[in-house]
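4.2 Preliminary Data

To establish feasibility before requesting continued support, the project team ran the inverse folding procedure on a target of 97 residues. The structure was first converted into the token representation described in Section 3, and no sequence information of any kind was made available to the design step. The complete token record follows.
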């Protein structure tokens, strides 16, 4: 599997999990912590997150994921971080591995 295919797969799984309320933005950011985001996101994307939060008056998980979409998460974050989020959601839903 190529890196592009892997990124597309993670983006679709995270997008689907959010859309179908298998997990929520706070669940994602429990794994994609501020330290993880600061380490792996490019400076211009971090700047957009900060600007959007300042314009809205608060930084919330929903607001972060409005800027850092599932596609961007899959492109920039280590996939083990996203996988941990997916695994935790599956465990909460009673999915056995």
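Position-by-position output of the design step:
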């Amino acid at each position: 599997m190529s890196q592009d295919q892997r990124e597309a797969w993670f983006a679709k799984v995270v997008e689907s999990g959010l859309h179908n309320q298998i997990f929520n933005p706070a669940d994602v950011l429990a794994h994609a912590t501020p330290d993880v985001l600061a380490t792996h996101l490019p400076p211009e994307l971090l700047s957009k997150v900060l600007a959007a939060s300042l314009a809205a008056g608060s930084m919330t998980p929903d607001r972060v994921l409005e800027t850092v979409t599932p596609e961007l998460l899959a492109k920039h974050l280590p996939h083990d971080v996203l996988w941990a989020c997916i695994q935790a959601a599956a465990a909460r839903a009673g999915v056995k591995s």
